[in-house]
Specification:
Blueprint lengths: L1 H10 L19 E4 L5 E7 L3 E5 L1 H5 L8 E4 L3 E5 L1
Antiparallel strand pairs: 1-2, 1-5, 2-3, 3-4
Length: 81
């Protein structure tokens, strides 16, 4: 399920946010590391000021499968290829 969602997000047409050169940026479907949390997270939505993430554990959980968290761009540590 996680892989299917990731692939679907990558295939959607999206417009990257307006970011300054040199600042980290990500796109829906990317896996990222955050400063505020451990583990890898899947980017589901991107805006100019924030991005939303979910993770495999939440997707596999019956009660949390729709859970998403919004983070500021300053919380983006690294994009995993």
């Amino acid at each position: 399920m996680y892989r299917k969602i990731r692939q679907a997000l990558k295939e959607q047409e999206h417009h990257p946010p307006q970011r300054l050169q040199g600042e980290p940026t990500c796109n829906p479907g990317d896996e990222v590391l955050l400063f505020s949390k451990k583990g890898t997270y899947l980017v589901t939505e991107v805006t100019d000021s924030t991005f939303s993430v979910t993770c495999q554990r939440w997707l596999n959980s019956k009660n949390q499968k729709d859970r998403k968290e919004e983070h500021l761009w300053s919380d983006l540590k690294e994009v995993i290829a």
